[in-house]
Amino acid sequence: MSTHYDSIDELSQALLDASYLPDRGLATALFLSLELEKPLLLEGEAGVGKTEAAKALARAQGARLIRLQCYEGLDVAHAVYEWNYSRQLLHIRAAQEGAVSEEELFGPEFLIRRPLLEAIASEEPVVLLIDEIDRADDEFEAFLLEVLSDFQITIPEIGTIQAARKPAVVLTSNRTRELHDALKRRCLFHWIGHPALEREIEIVRLRVPGVPERLAAQAAAFVQGLRTLDLAKPPGVAETIDWAQALAALGRQELDAELVESTLGSVLKYHEDFETVRDAALARLVEEARAVAR
Amino acid sequence: MRDRAVVRHVVTFGRILREAGLEVGPQRLQDALNGLDRVELARRDDVYWTLRQTLVARVDDLAAFDSAFTAWFERAPVRPPMRAVEQPQPIRPSVAFGERPKDDGSAPDGELQSKGWSAEEVLRQKDFASLSPGELEQVKKLIARAGACRPERRSRRLRPHPRGRELDLRRLVRGSLSTGGDVIERSFRRRKTVPRKLVLLCDVSGSMEAYTRALLLFVHAVVGSGRGVEAFAFGTRLTRLTPELAERDPEKAVAAAARRVVDWTGGTRIGASLKAFNDEWGRRALTRGAVIVIASDGWERGEAALVGQEMARLARAAYAVVWVNPLKGSPEYQPLAGGMRAALPYVDRFLPGHNLASLEGLGEVLAGIERRHAA
């Protein structure tokens, strides 16, 4: 039996114990998803912690995380199941002539389980993460819709496999395209925005153990400042965490312009953004960040 | 036992949301009620999140939800639906589409006809700017046909094909059952082709006025050709037109698009519009691997340098960039306008778009576009 939570607060605490600091909105979303047994669709800018939320839920529940990374051209053979053809051929060869029946050949021992089947067929509690669903193409989305409405998968040679227990399902999307309304109707929807300053500082301190308090606050404040600029790719929380890790590894206690310039590469991933910040705003943002925590 | 007051509240709230343009079906209301059963109704936050997560499915609807929630929860008088209903505003008949005297410089038509050209061929070559409304009506159908071509890409999916390159193992194993594992007949699979993403950006500023309508009809036909097409208009700002142009009837669709665009026949800020496009849509990877079509005369009121910079960003992500410029239909045309000159280095195909023949040409280019061309 997977862990049951009586309240949103209880789930929040469990996530916190799993090193994830959810805001009230996300905690509510995850709570309702578990309670109503509906998949949760998480959308938001890159790097705000969509994927991490699913991982944290799995950790908190002590459940296995099964991840399906979507991409253009993803098909049933890679998402659901495939037959182990080389083993099948060997098996036919090894057996005496005519001794192999079709039922035998298309039995469970020759079946390769891919993430969706794995999640449906699992006896233990699992969290199924369907990552970047917007990258898969329409046909796959339609197929997924079927799986998510009935939690069953049909394999022509074997029959229908019904989930023993409905897995917790989290879908993430970067909104490269709108998803089908039908799929959305199956899901609860939560939009994750960038966190407020106080929360971002807390997240950094939680995720980078041993980071000096002042450094965490200044790094978070600096990144918040970056987000107000007109950048091609504003940094997400993931970047703040990476950066704080780098800064802490350098043994620094606080930010200065020189340090920022030499480490900014872990925050800004586009050369144009890097140049924009270095030439126009760096000194000012460092000053502002230092003013947050002296 | 569910509190009847809560049910009534949620149902009323659903109605308010529907008036604001959200799609709130019975299933969503049911989810909302089930959700509310499980959270503390005394906590405003929890009620807010529960309703938002069960009743809203799109980011674009969040603002409408928030104002409706504030109005409902705090019992403020409910505001009218978010999207103010604008006065239906017919497309302004431009000089170009207006009736013009028959004897006004129409010699070429007569000349061509006397040489035995078909009427369709004449229309095909005639500049959109000089079509009469009657002629435009005739051209409409042909434009729709020209716009039905889509660029394709090879999918990673395979399907059985006698001349495919990859072995179809599933069939092969099945086939070899009867032969004791000896493979007699080989089955092959091949990649199938699927439509490539296509994004069209149409300049609707004043200087393009004579062509906007014909180009939008073309865009409408492309949008109608299947999924994976996005359409935008720009003048001084960017407007997404895909939902408006998804309407089947071309007249209604173009009229809806014209109502939607606030800067119709206004000024042009190509650079700023492209930037807005890259920022909002490019970041969401809409442009990645897509064929981008920009229809504009390249007259930029803003800074040309910005046009170049944003075109560079666009070209890096896109599969191919096609620029359609109605002015290019004239033999004397040279791309000297600042915006056009700045954009050209990043354009793979530079085409005219002043008459039906050139739009048919565009359709063929789009259907056949395979790899990146040098400008």
Keywords:
A: 294 residues, alpha/beta, 2 domains, B: 375 residues, Rossmann fold, six-stranded mixed beta sheet, three-stranded antiparallel beta sheet
Task: Describe, in plain words, how this protein is organized in 3D.
- The complex is a heterodimer of chains A (294) and B (375).
- Chain A is α/β, with parallel strands linked by helices and 294 residues long.
- Chain A is 50% helix and 14% strand.
- Chain A has 2 domains: 8-192, P-loop containing nucleotide triphosphate hydrolases (Rossmann fold, 3-Layer(aba) Sandwich); 197-292.
- Chain A is elongated.
- Chain B has 3 domains: 4-73, no CATH class; 154-195, no CATH class; 198-368, von Willebrand factor, type A domain (Rossmann fold).
- Chain B is built from 15 helices and 9 strands.
- Chain B has helices at residues 4-19, 26-38, 44-55, 62-73, 107-114, 119-125, 133-146, 169-176, 209-223, 242-245, 250-260, 270-282, 304-317, 338-343, 356-368, and strands at 152-160, 166-167, 188-195, 198-203, 229-234, 238-240, 291-295, 320-324, 349-351.
- The longest helix of chain B has 16 residues, at 4-19.
- Chain B starts with a helix and ends in a 7-residue tail after the last helix.
- The chains are: A alpha/beta (294), B alpha/beta (375).
- Chains A and B meet through α2, α5, α9 and β9 of A and α2, α3, β1 and α8 of B.
